[in-house]
Design brief:
This protein has six helices and five strands; from the N terminus they run βααβββαβααα. The chain is of the alpha+beta class.
Length: about 130
């Protein structure tokens, strides 16, 4: 199967432990988090609304919350995407392995994770502390 993920969600998925913006959001993110662990899962990358945003109550007219917040989110995506190829489709296991290797210190994630409201619930971030 194929999933579409925005850049910063690659880090969010590594830290996900069941928290989110609504019940539907959590159910969907749990499903995506399971899919991305399958050997035959293919991932395409984007800095636009993805298969996680599609169940998010914050998504309005394809924008995350509002114009200003959306710009911040896209910057976070682009920071992660700068390490990858948007034209490519990735094997999910290989992609997440690469993500773990490339974003393995607080310094390397600071432009993505600073000011994140999920900081205290994110296993990925906690492991870097
Ligand atoms: S719409 Fe915004 S808050 Fe919701 S999942 Fe997408 S990026 Fe996150």
């Amino acid at each position: 199967m194929k999933i579409k993920l925005r850049g910063h969600h690659l880090l969010c998925l590594l830290g996900f432990q069941g928290y989110g913006y609504s019940e539907d959001f959590v159910l969907n993110m749990t499903r995506i988090n399971e899919l991305r662990k399958s050997e035959d899962c293919i991932v395409s990358l984007t800095n636009e609304p993805d298969d996680i945003c599609s169940s998010c109550p914050n998504l309005n007219d394809n924008v995350c919350e509002n114009k200003k917040q959306n710009e911040i989110i896209v910057e976070m995506d682009d920071e992660v995407l700068s390490q990858f190829n948007l034209e490519k489709e990735y094997n999910s296991l290989e992609l997440f392995n690469e993500v773990s290797l490339k974003f393995n210190t607080m310094k390397k994630v600071e432009n993505v994770c600073k000011n994140c409201k999920w900081e205290n619930e994110c296993l990925f971030y906690k492991k870097l502390e």
